[in-house]
Design goal:
Number of domains of chain B: 1
Helix content of chain A: over 70%
CATH topology of chain A: MetI-like fold
CATH superfamily of chain A: MetI-like
CATH architecture of chain B: Orthogonal Bundle
Oligomer: heterodimer
Shape of chain B: elongated
CATH architecture of chain A: Orthogonal Bundle
Order of helices and strands of chain A: HHHHHHHHHH
Largest interface: A-B, 55 and 52 residues
Radius of gyration of chain B: 21 Å
CATH class of chain B: Mainly Alpha
Largest sheet of chain A: none
Number of helices of chain B: 10
Structural class of chain A: mainly alpha
């Protein structure tokens, strides 16, 4: 940081709006792709764990161990497999979502009251129909809670991909910010990350409320 | 795949360990000392704060709201936020250990505060009232009733913070904090991938050992009657709950 460099230089922000928007776009794209793929895989794993309860502990242990590996190390350890490509970033980010999403989906499905399942059986629902039309809607709030945690976590983790040449908002924080002792770029990157996390969280909460109108009716 | 072999080869060369200026021993020491110091400072701030808001219920909404926003700041972001400030305040002393410590402390506080608070809030109110009826004073209630019952959730918070601190210490190298991340961050810049992969293996082992260590502490500290399957999981349900029982 040169002498007298202010913490925020608004003229730089105005001059670099294109660059900032591009990084923001990259960031959002990587978050959406990772969480979407992670959700599909976790959902599959949750169904497997319910069908074969003995796999439950193994899945938790494996996803839990991956979750403990620092992001920078995981990105690097994937380079031998996927190279310095966007795939390396996405694969690692997907792996991180698995623990959170798997745990929440299983917890949510286990939380469906047995009476409700009995009632659905009594009404003549088959197993598949009962799952999609009764169990899943009841489990939805906790499933979405998992999605919210996974999304906010992933928004933070994407920044680290800048070390393997990807970046999103991490590029602003690290490459054009910290490495060049340029605070404006750092603060713009961090602020956009926080705003993105808060907005994504609120959006998912809103979707959940729309999808489960009965939960609100009961509260009122 | 041969990159893994190169990483292992780099790790097996004793000269890479003993170099006094950029050896693995030095970087490992930086990594561990920075992590331990950060965790201690964060614990000294977060645990009393969590106990206080959990016990009294005062100021809880504000503290938890701040902690949740704190969580939305990426780990790299904390390092980025802190170091221009320390640099402006302390000149060259504002690089290295100091900004790394402050950033890691900021990162480690939220899980400990929210879990301590959530753990205390979950303690059966009847238990607390019974303690009060037995003539316990507030500190006694906290020490002999609330903390023992809430311990699993509190320890889970400390474990989440510890693993996160060890992980993020890797990134401290970008503000001159050294640590094992030095090999990764500098190695990528000069394309010395053997060093990068070797250090990444070490960092992963260190983080997993931290996770196992704190899981073991958690299991030993919890009475068998209280520990459920959740003893393993890094993401406790209680940690996700906000005041009012709403899930995050």
């Amino acid at each position: 940081m040169s002498e007298g460099e202010p913490f925020i230089r608004f003229d730089w922000i105005v001059d670099n709006l294109d660059e900032i928007a591009q990084r923001l776009g990259e960031h959002v794209l990587m978050v959406v792709a990772s969480v979407a793929v992670g959700f599909v895989i976790s959902f599959g794993l949750a169904i497997v764990a319910r069908r074969y309860p003995r796999t439950h502990g193994t899945i938790l242990a494996v996803t839990g161990t991956i979750y403990a590996i620092p992001s920078l190390a995981l990105f690097v350890l994937l380079i031998p497999l996927t190279g310095l490509t966007v795939a390396t970033g996405i694969v690692a980010l997907v792996l991180y979502t698995l623990l959170i999403l798997f745990r929440n989906i299983v917890t949510a499905l286990e939380g469906v009251p047995p009476d409700v399942i009995e009632a659905a059986n009594g009404m003549g629902y088959g197993a598949a129909q009962r799952f999609w039309r009764v169990e899943l809607p009841i489990a939805l709030p906790i499933v979405v809670a998992g999605l919210r945690i996974a999304t906010v976590t992933t928004i933070g983790l994407v920044t680290v991909t800048t070390f393997i040449g990807l970046g999103g908002l991490g590029y602003l924080i690290i490459n054009s910010g910290t490495r060049r002792f340029f605070p404006t770029s750092i603060y713009v990157g961090v602020l956009l990350c926080v705003v993105l996390a808060v907005l994504a969280d609120l959006a998912l909460l809103w979707i959940q409320r729309r999808l489960t109108p009965w939960a609100r009716a009961r509260q009122a | 795949m041969e990159l893994f072999g190169e990483g292992i080869a780099w790790l097996s060369d004793p000269a890479n360990w003993t170099d006094p200026r950029n050896g693995i021993v030095l970087r490992l020491w930086e990594h561990v000392s920075l992590s331990v110091a950060s965790l201690l400072v964060a614990g000294l701030i977060a645990l009393p704060l969590g106990l206080w808001i959990g016990h009294t219920g005062r100021g809880a909404a504000a503290v938890i709201a701040i902690a949740n926003i704190g969580r939305a700041v990426p780990s790299v972001g904390w390092l980025g936020i802190v170091f221009p400030i320390t640099l402006a305040l302390f000149g060259r002393g504002g690089l290295g250990f100091l900004p790394s410590l402050i950033a890691l402390v900021a990162l480690a506080i939220p899980p400990m505060v929210t879990n301590t608070y959530a753990g205390l809030r979950e303690v059966d109110r009847d238990l607390v009232e019974a303690g009060r009826g037995m003539g316990m004073r507030e500190m006694e209630l906290l020490r002999r009733v609330e903390v023992p019952v809430a311990l699993p959730v509190i320890l889970a918070g400390i474990r989440v913070s510890a693993v996160q601190t060890v992980a993020t210490a890797t990134l401290a190298s970008i503000v001159g904090g050294g640590t094992l991340g030095e090999f990764i961050v500098q190695g990528i810049l000069v394309r010395a991938l053997d060093r990068v992969v070797g250090a990444a293996i070490l960092v992963a082992i260190l983080a997993i050992l931290t996770e196992l260590l704190f899981s073991a502490i958690q299991r030993r500290a919890i009475s068998p009657g209280l520990s459920g399957r959740s003893a393993w999981s890094p993401m406790e349900p209680a940690q996700m709950s906000r005041p009012g029982g709403e899930l995050v």
